[in-house]
Specification:
By secondary structure, the chain is of the alpha/beta class. It is built from six helices and 13 strands.
């Protein structure tokens, strides 16, 4: 069973549909007991960092997220879900993230020819042997929608980067924590391969 955490952030439905298409047994829930029982947990989402953290706190989901990560349950953050795993974001000064991984979320700087939000297909540069990328070619294109990007403190956890005016840490893996800034559920066959690799962990 894969639990998708429902905290009133956008994009949850498309993640659920993609996993169902792959044959996964999926539940969308904010019930701590259901999340604890799940074999894998996904934190998807689009929206604002500050609002998302407020929702996670108001639904009482922060302790259960820490609990399932601590006990070793495979955990995947997607888009805003990646950003929330880190310490802080320039989008919401003074708001603490989950702090499960070290790093900060910065605004993509303005530059000639760059539209913000960064929206559309971008190639990845893969680093090391990322478990999510075992069936993905080195310069695969993934679909992004974001105005803020991750700068991870620990470079060893970064398994994919993308270039868009700056180097974006596009995917990280540490122990049982996995996260993608891009949307695998909207990234055609290659994205589905990433979700399948997560399902098979």
């Amino acid at each position: 069973m894969i639990a998708i955490i429902d905290y009133d952030a956008g994009n949850i439905k498309s993640v659920e549909k993609a996993l169902q298409k792959l044959g996964a047994d999926v539940i969308v829930t904010r019930d701590p007991d259901e999340i604890r029982k799940a074999g894998k947990v996904i934190l998807p989402g689009v929206g604002s960092f500050g609002d998302a953290m407020q929702n996670l706190h108001s639904f009482g989901l922060v302790p259960v997220i820490r609990e399932v990560v601590e006990k070793g349950t495979p955990f995947l953050g997607i888009c805003l879900g990646l950003q929330l795993l880190f310490d802080r974001s320039e989008e919401s000064p003074g708001v603490e993230g989950l702090g499960l991984l070290k790093g900060e979320i910065l605004r993509i700087p303005d530059g000639p020819g760059l539209k913000i939000p960064h929206m559309g297909w971008n190639s990845l540069d893969l680093h090391g042997e990322g478990k999510l990328f075992r069936n993905v070619p080195r310069n695969a294109y993934m679909y992004f929608v974001h105005s803020y990007y991750l700068k991870a403190s620990d470079r060893d956890i970064v398994k994919a980067t993308a270039e868009y005016g700056v180097t974006i840490d596009a995917s990280v893996e540490k122990d049982n924590i996995f996260a993608c800034q891009f949307h695998p559920e909207k990234s055609s066959d290659m994205g589905m391969d990433i979700l399948k690799s997560f399902m098979e962990l």
